[in-house]
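Support reply, case 0932

Customer input (verbatim):
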Amino acid sequence: MRICSLLPSATEIVFALGLGDRLVAVTHECDFPEAARGLPVVTRSIMPHRDGASREIHTHIARALHAGSSIYALDEATLERLDPDLILTQELCEVCAVSSREVRKAAGRLAGRPTILSLEPTSLGGVLETIEQVGGAAGVDERARAVVAGLRSRLERVAARARAATARPRVFAMEWLDPPFSAGHWVPEMVRLAGGVEGLGREARPSTVVGWDEVAHWDPEIIVLMPCGMSLDRTLAELPRVSLPDAWRRLAAVRAGHLYAVDGAAYFNRPGPRVVDGLEILAEIIHPEVFPRLARGGWQRLPAS
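Our regenerated output:
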């Protein structure tokens, strides 16, 4: 079987299932594991402000979506040459990958008429289900069940330990910096399982823009910066470029020095196996009295200033 992954999360799933040798094509954003970096790339970004400030990127994406245009291009010639049997894609998020419409149109031109598997998780359970879906499509059902069992065991272990904590601090999982977005889908569930309360994001619902007045009303005790698609280093570089309101300094989390940055791209934005690492990171941040720090490099506490 020849597999084409049009999602970084799907690429991680394929490797987790031991199918890396069957992967013939990936996206320009597939950077994990290291072996994925050397594979043929069949997508590219056509967004002119990809390295711009948060507000600039948001404005461009909003305009593109309003106009019905994509921010990614698919290399159909390379896709045709590689001739995959299975294409992994998604329809959940218009800014996360090449549009499903474009994928299906391109696949229809391929001689082999590949199977298209669309992955649509909105919860942690859904993420685990997608691993089993990929395993089923690739003929490694038993292996997929074993991978899922291991991940589920880690999830349950974190949740059980977090329940022993007495406090349930208010958390703001911030998925974009300017304008501020509350994280959605599986992230509020991750916060809950890690022993916190996310009052701005909703489980199994998309991320949304929130007003600073809403943030002030929630007055989070812990703020976790996890901008979509940004590494920890990129997040640290981006924060000084954001114009924060005066109310920011009055937030309980900022006053207490409970402001954290994480590698959102690796552990929170992609619905793949590493969201379990993300849950463990959140647990370390929210309840350090229960969870010793093990995730070196995955997160950083920021100075209140």
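We compared this against your earlier run and they match. Two observations from our side: The longest strand covers residues 170-176. The chain has two domains: 3-120, 147-302. Please reopen the case if you see a mismatch on your end.
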